[in-house]
Amino acid sequence: MWNANIRSWRCSLGDNGHYRLDEIRGRHFVQTVKRARLPEGLAREALQKIGDTAKAALDAVQTELPEGFPGAIHKAVSKGFKERLARMAG
User: What are 64-89's pLDDT values in tens digits?
Assistant: First the structure.
């Protein structure tokens, strides 16, 4: 049965293999790329592009929000989004 609780979802990535989605860091992608005998720079470049694109997307969303959109919702989503990006970069 499908579980909507994201904290229970797991991903096979990095040296240890199975991380919950909220535990995945950029270094796990680097470890996986190394294990696949691909250049480490490939993972770092991809993570950089993801970060750049994600930041631009967040900025674009902010300009597209309808008038009267609850600021608290946007602030909470933006905060979580930025925190997740920071974990992926680190």
Answer: 999 999 989 999 999 988 888 888 87
CA distances from 70 to 23, 50, 75 (A): 29, 27, 9
Instruction: Name the residue ranges covered by the structural domains of the chain.
Output: 6-89
Residue type, 86: A
**H-assigned helices in the chain:** 26-35, 40-64, 71-89
How far is the C-alpha of 5 from the C-alpha of 20, rounded, in Å?
11
Question: What single DSSP character describes residue 7?
Answer: G
Burial of 63 (0-12, 13-18, 19+ CB in 10 A): exposed
